[in-house]
Amino acid sequence: MTESTPPPFGTPPPVPPPGIPYPPPYVDPAAPYGRDPATGAPYSDKSKLVAGLLQLLGLVGFVGFGRIYLGQTLLGVVQLLIGFVTFGIVAVIWAIIDAVLIFGGKVSDKAGRQLRD
User: Fold this and answer.
1) Has residue 2 got a pLDDT over 60?
2) Neighbouring C-alpha atoms within 13 Å toward the C-beta of 17
3) In 3D, which of 47, 44, 52 has the Cα closest to residue 102?
4) Between the CA of residue 100 and those of 49, 56, 87, 106, what are the distances in Å?
5) Residue 96 pLDDT > 80, yes or no?
6) Spans of all domains in the chain
7) In angstroms, what CA-CA distances link 82 with 47, 49, 77, 109?
8) Distance of alpha carbon 109 from alpha carbon 98, whole angstroms
């Protein structure tokens, strides 16, 4: 077979010789989870979906777990205590409002980074 003829159909692609490593993919050390294309701000390691769903546990009376997940422990504990004191009545309203804020991207993590989708 000469250099100008293509390999027969079904032949696996050539493998690089041993000892030549592939270059590693570029990872920004300041933003390991990527950056927001509009603002360039780094994304958090926390997820909007997980935080919002944890916050929706307030619909059954246990509010604050979403905030605790985001690292905002004091606010999460306050929400939890108010939910217990009011027998879950305030918890339902607070949970819906807070979940909408989280899903809408208005809430950031403890370090101030935007939540990932």
Assistant:
1) no
2) 1
3) 52
4) 11, 10, 22, 9
5) yes
6) 62-107
7) 25, 24, 9, 22
8) 14
pTM of the model: 0.70
Distances (CA, A) of 50 to 40, 83, 103: 23, 20, 10
Phi, then psi, of 92 in degrees rounded to 5: -65, -45
- Give start and end residues of each alpha helix (H) in 1-117: 48-55, 65-69, 73-85, 89-103
pLDDT tens profile 21-42 = 666 666 778 888 888 888 888 8
The whole-angstrom separation of Cα 52 and Cα 18 is 48
**Nearest C-alpha neighbor of 107 from the set 80, 77, 68:** 68
CB atoms < 10 A from the CB of 80, how many?
19
